[in-house]
């Protein structure tokens, strides 16, 4: 790349790196901020998070209109960057506990997020287009390299911010708690740096002046066309070659040609949101899939950084190796063909995710449907020495659960489905042992899972019903509970989690960190008890530990309610590789294509249109995920099939697209202008002749 251009691009790329660090660094701790600082529930936190993300992708159109119509790209970036910085500062101040009460913190946080959304969304289409403006049309190859470097800077900023910002929040303490003020303050500083760096290169930039209110002019032009078509239809005027040609009488041919160029590209954008619908599920569905997998040797932070790491690796490989090799094979791989191939790779990624999901769900206990619940049996071995049978009956329907009395519980756990009926959820439980039957009445709720503890008392057999947790944890950690058969209450510490278990009582299920626990400390009312060996508490499992006194010692018996995740997270790597290859071919190419096919006065607008496809992709996810209610592997397969179908449609549309060189527009318009000038000169000469004739006639 030319040295002069290299200096210019350095300012723009460093600006983008700092801005993306600022944005993704703030988002990395935003949900935790809602949950732990503002104390919102998960639903509200998720809703606000996605509302903010959507606003960030709908505001680019506003920034694009401001840049192309009034201020120009350079001034728009400067002014909206200042708004961006103010938003970060307000957000950071709202995270200081000593500043006002909770209502003040919420107000400052919302104002900060809105300002950030307008800042980041407003400058997003301008920075990429401004960078492209630095290259002349004959330097298309250099411009393509710029967009690759530009995209790498985005991912480099994202990568570092997801490492550093969570450390600033958790490892640094301020005001006696997690330091959210610092975690939001550092992104604010990076945004200030981004603005200063961008301004520092001001003297080197090529600045394209704004062309007036382009969007309003386009809307007026289309309005005129609609009116002309209605009024001329009655006059039986010959049809026009293109419907936009109806505006030729009031608008220049140049504007009409520019609108044609933009509309041709926007029509191509119609199928594109489907790609983003799949791509953005890396942060939602794929992350949830990972929590149900064995994450041994892999930390959550590394999993979150996987896509950014691969982007930094794959972009130079494609630019320096793969694309040149394809060119040597004399294969004409156009931008639209690259994008279609990117769609295919994304669909293959979801095919791989489907295969993984099918294996993952084998360790998941499916919840009972409406009107039913799940039930398993626990047995005290010191009372029963033979076999017993538990019968659950209601309104003539019966269900039998049998258990060998040499076991505490089924291994592996085997829940039976119990029908609750339409009017009553009270079931009579009948426990039969040696021909004698005991009954107890228990209350159930639909869609829940229960354990029936069969115990001995002086009067015979006793039943106790406890609710089970069969859900995998959101973070992949195991759940643990204790059932104390000992004579005294006991306090147990598993890592940082404390369990207080009274005699004969089942404790609550609590999430603990995954790991080996050979020496768990416990405390009895009269002193410490021997360390308990709980063994490995593995990813995603749910355990019940029965504490029993044997030979004067407290002995733990560990039962598995939900099996541990047995599919290693490494099996997700193929789907990440495929989706990243798809991103390199689709996203980077689309970014450059949007710039190259736009007229000079509408480049930011078309960049904003490109970004809107991301926003609509998220809308598709919400519609399918919330509306369909499918099993996860079926949903993955559905998305893959939908994208393949869209890819076929896009390929057909692309085959009819004719690539344009915006610089050729000047030549065409000059030729048309020349013809119009010749026509005007001829008309003027004719008018002069007619005027001379009239003058002579008057004299005569």
UniProtKB/TrEMBL annotation:
Query: Which sequence ranges form a coiled-coil region, renumbered to this chain?
Result: none
**What family does the database annotate?**
Belongs to the major facilitator superfamily. Proton-dependent oligopeptide transporter (POT/PTR) (TC 2.A.17) family.
Q: Mind listing the UniProt keywords for this protein, alphabetically?
A: Membrane, Peptide transport, Protein transport, Symport, Transmembrane, Transmembrane helix, Transport
Q: How does it sit in the membrane?
A: Multi-pass membrane protein
Region called Disordered, residue ranges: 673-700
GO cellular-component term (any): membrane
Question: Mostly located where?
Answer: membrane
The protein's name is Solute carrier family 15 member 2
Any one Pfam family here would be: PTR2
InterPro entries the record matches = MFS_trans_sf, POT_fam, PTR2_symporter_CS
Share an example GO biological-process annotation for this protein: response to yeast
Q: Where in the cell is it found?
A: Membrane
Q: Which GO terms describe its molecular function?
A: dipeptide transmembrane transporter activity; symporter activity
Instruction: Give the transmembrane region(s).
Output: 21-40, 46-66, 78-100, 106-127, 148-168, 180-205, 261-279, 305-326, 338-356, 605-625, 637-660
Kindly list the organism's lineage: Eukaryota, Metazoa, Chordata, Craniata, Vertebrata
Identify the species of origin. Answer: Labrus bergylta (ballan wrasse)
Q: Where is the composition biased (Basic and acidic residues)?
A: 673-691
